[in-house]
Amino acid sequence: MDNEADTKTGRAILKSLDNRRLRLILLPTEKCNFRCTYCYETFELGQMQAGVIQGVKNLLAKRADELSTLEIDWFGGEPLLGMRTIENISLYILHLRHQYGFDFRSSMTTNAYLLKPALLTQLVNLGVKNYQVTLDGYGEFHDRTRQRKNRKGSFATIWQNLLAARNLDLDYRIMLRVHFSPANLEELPLLVDRIKEEFGNDKRFHVFFKAIGHYGGSNDANVASFGRKSAEKYQGMLLERLGQTVQGSALERDQLYVCYASEPNSLVIRPNGKIAKCTVAFDDERNDVGVIREDGSLSFYTERLQLWFKGLHSQDKRDLACPHSQMGSVQASNTRDVIFQTRIQSG
After folding, report:
1. Do residues 332 and 286 lie in contact, with contact meaning Cβ atoms separated by under 8 Å?
2. Do the strands 274-276 and 266-269 form a parallel or antiparallel pair, or are they unpaired?
3. Domain range spanning residue 296?
4. Rounded to an integer, what distance in angstroms lies between the CA atom of residue 268 and that of residue 336?
5. What span, in angstroms and rounded, lies between the C-alpha atoms of 248 and 65?
6. Looking at residue 222, what is its pLDDT?
7. Pick from 99-108, 129-138, 158-167, 334-343: least confident
8. Rounded CA gap, 138 and 305, in Å?
9. 262 band by pLDDT with thresholds 50, 70 and 90
10. pLDDT at 86 over 70
């Protein structure tokens, strides 16, 4: 790597090691009201258990006085099906922030089917100000892949919720994640044009173009996808069509990206209290790295956990960008490390 790349990598690694920063990706439920054709999730776990909620709150209470930044990402399933948990934990965090003064940032990945104006207003007041919403096309083209649990379409409701959000005088940011594949590429210009028409010049709305891939779901064999070069080509074409009225982006192949799974100060907490590093690999036992207890203590499978930090040592951008894809068939034991548990708690 050149000097500039080395500097960026070094800064990203130092940020990921900063014990004054904490990022928790919380799954209030793994149930979902959608059944997207390319989804990799199994929907086995329901609402976050009361002991896990208390464990998260106790962990944050123990860490609050040393934190400079706390990031909470709500994921699922569909997180809005677990709104009581979101409200419970968010109110507690706002109380801690008032007491200790740390910087608090909160985001949500949601299908937006339930994101009515009143609920969006409530969430923004709870500090959840950044959202990622996926669109696979306009109208029926979206409905082919992003279907509800009853196999009916979802686009009309999502689009109306987005239009209603546009009309609210609220401080939020919505990233429209536009999926593209060989199956929908011809229909996407209509969606891009409608996004420009409805959300152009509203700086709260952004677009991210992402090629659909194979994520390990039962339908992988039936999902058409692009190779890397083709994906980059079509990303460029879509960005050109989007123009300048809406901010658009696509991850460049040579752009430095450090995945949250590579960061020691980032943890995924599932509804049953299991701790993971990656939200895409729940079926891989190496992603089951520990557990959070009701008192807020954390216990880890050390050998599994260390697999996710290879990029911190190699500084290879592939290891940093997606540690799971670089693991191969490495196996790990269930050894627990109480010393690391203590370090996570006390800093």
Report:
1. yes
2. antiparallel
3. 3-346
4. 18
5. 38
6. 53
7. 334-343
8. 41
9. very high
10. yes
Torsion (CA) 296, 302, 307, 311 in degrees, nearest 10: 70
State both tokens at 62.
Answer: 């123990």
pLDDT cut 70: percent of the chain above it: 86
What count of residues does the chain have? 347
Dihedral of the CA atoms 257, 261, 262, 266 (nearest 10)? Answer: 110
Q: Residue 164 class from Cβ within 10 Å (0-12 exposed, 13-18 middle, 19+ buried)?
A: middle
Q: Give the whole-angstrom CA distance, residue 277 versus residue 322.
A: 11
Contact between 222 and 36 under an 8 Å Cβ cutoff? The reply is: no
H/E stretch holding 242 reads: helix 228-242
Non-local CB neighbours of 125 within 8 Å, separated by 6+ positions? none
Number of domains into which the chain is organized: 1
3-state secondary structure 33-61: CECCCCCCCCCCCCECCHHHHHHHHHHHH
Residue 174 maps to which CATH number?
3.20.20.70
Q: How far apart are CA 302 and CA 333, in angstroms?
A: 8
Distance CA 141, CA 194 (A): 14
**Are the CB atoms for 145 and 37 separated by under 8 Å?**
yes
